Amino acid sequence: MSALLELRDIRKSFSGVKVLDDVSLSLAPGEVVSLLGPSGCGKSTLLRIAAGLDDEFAGSLERNPLLGFGPDGDSGRGGGGVGVVFQEPRLLPWLTVAQNIGFADGWLADDNRIEHLLRDVGLDGKGDLLPKQLSGGMAQRAAIARGLYGRPQVLLLDEPFSAVDAFTRIRLQDLIQQLALEYDISILLVTHDLDEAFYLSDRVLLLGGTPSRLRRKFPVPLPRPRDRRAVELAFLRGEALTELHQSHVI
């Protein structure tokens, strides 16, 4: 198996209502893939399945043996070489930023690793602060550091910038782009933001319909890091928007 993650023919229902139907995707080493689509189309559900946090589905989830298996709950680690960053930072309010980042290791947390991550996400010197002392953008940076703490090969991001302002969102997008290159990790990103999807990704997968299916796949043949003003990105955004309109999913 060359892919790090592969989902095949995923079907998922809630209370008898099918929300995902015959969805397949794969994530190759070093690849950034975005799941794009309107709210409620099942993007986050698919990400939870990929993380191993939801096993009530039809179809199959295969992980490369190098990743290992088994979720560790909602700690920010999907288990076995997979890190997870949610829509909300989910920091424990009674722990410092540094303690939140190394929480899964308890008293055995690697202080050097934590300090390195704090520097990488722009929180150098903030490790002793409590979550209530952080801005929204800083809290999400801490959550990203927590997701990277276990040295994952795959990072799953569930609309991680949806709760911050536009300028902070741009800075966090640039941070993710930088970290993907520096850490040589694969990323599966859930978003409903066209600009974000095409700026960050090597491939964009468009979900939509009732139940939701993969409507179209968009390769993004531009090297990273990228210029947000690139004509090629504007063209791809237009193509995706046209597909959304024609499919009546927005």
From TrEMBL:
SMART domains per the UniProt record, alphabetical: AAA (SM00382)
PROSITE patterns, per the entry: ABC_TRANSPORTER_1, ABC_TRANSPORTER_2
Annotated Pfam families: ABC_tran
UniProt keyword terms in alphabetical order: ATP-binding, Nucleotide-binding, Translocase, Transport
Molecular-function annotations in GO: ATP binding; ATP hydrolysis activity
Every ABC transporter domain range: 5-234
Transmembrane segments: none
Superkingdom per UniProt: Bacteria
InterPro entries referenced in this protein's UniProt entry, alphabetically: AAA+_ATPase (IPR003593), ABC_transporter-like_ATP-bd (IPR003439), ABC_transporter-like_CS (IPR017871), ABC_transporter_ATP-bind (IPR050166), P-loop_NTPase (IPR027417)
Coiled-coil stretches noted in the UniProt entry, renumbered to this chain: none
Family to which this protein belongs: Belongs to the ABC transporter superfamily.
Protein name: ABC transporter ATP-binding protein
Organism of derivation: Pseudomonas nicosulfuronedens
